[in-house]
């Protein structure tokens, strides 16, 4: 009996926690309406093969043209320069 109450309490607490986390995420989520051909910047955190001191690296790389869209936030880019050998798919 006590174990069932504890399990029920934990389940309810987890559900409330999930609901709260979703509400917070939905408040800060920014939808981007991207189309093929748009120019976008990519966070430099996506590229860990660029040499040099981290402090002096640019925060973003680009602009790169969107080649394909696979979802609202999943896209393929036309990379160039040092990054041409990287996989062109980003989330």
Count of strand segments: 4
| Overall 3D shape | elongated
Overall SS class: alpha+beta
Number of helices: 1
Largest sheet properties: 4 strands, antiparallel
Instruction: Give the percentage of residues in beta strands.
Output: 15-25%
Distance between the termini: 47 Å
Question: How large is the radius of gyration?
Answer: 21 Å
Strand order of the largest sheet: 1-2-3-4
Oligomeric composition of the shown chains: single chain
Average pLDDT, to the nearest integer? 85
String of helices and strands: HEEEE
Helix content: 25-40%
Low-confidence stretches: none
Number of domains: 2
What does this structure look like?
With 91 residues, this protein is an alpha+beta fold. The protein folds into two domains: 1-30; 39-90, no CATH class. Helices cover 30% and strands 23% of the residues. The protein has one helix spanning 2-28; strands spanning 39-43, 60-69, 75-78, 89-90. It has a four-stranded antiparallel β-sheet with strand order 1-2-3-4, with no helix packed on it. Strand 2 (60-69) and strand 3 (75-78) form a beta hairpin. The longest helix is centred in the N-terminal third of the chain and has 27 residues, at 2-28. The radius of gyration is 21 Å and the shape is elongated.
